[in-house]
Fold this protein.
Amino acid sequence: MVKRLLHTRYRVADLDRTASFYKDVLGLEETRRSVSPRGSTLVFFKAPGSEEEIEICHYPASGPVIVGPDLTHLAFEVEDIDAFARHAAAKGYPLSDGPTPTGSGSIIAFIDAPEGYEVELIQRAR
């Protein structure tokens, strides 16, 4: 049986731009970088307070990266969604949706990462 989630992989065309987004906009820690046996470049990131990693893969031999609308997203908890929105906009990544209050009292918003992947931001109810 499965014990725990280790990582989630997203393939990208522009590895440097995407890695910069995860480090400079989201504030994730780059944990390691490697080249796989088949030749893909892999960069792993981790959010503070999380064990699971995000694997960003650059492998042009797989063809173009095509991300369909509303296909998948990552969700991160943030302390202050308005402060995050100001920080992200200053880096060239304005919110694509929200902030929106939810029925539970949390506030959610979305931002588009490079390549078209969507990132959800959640400020938990206080």
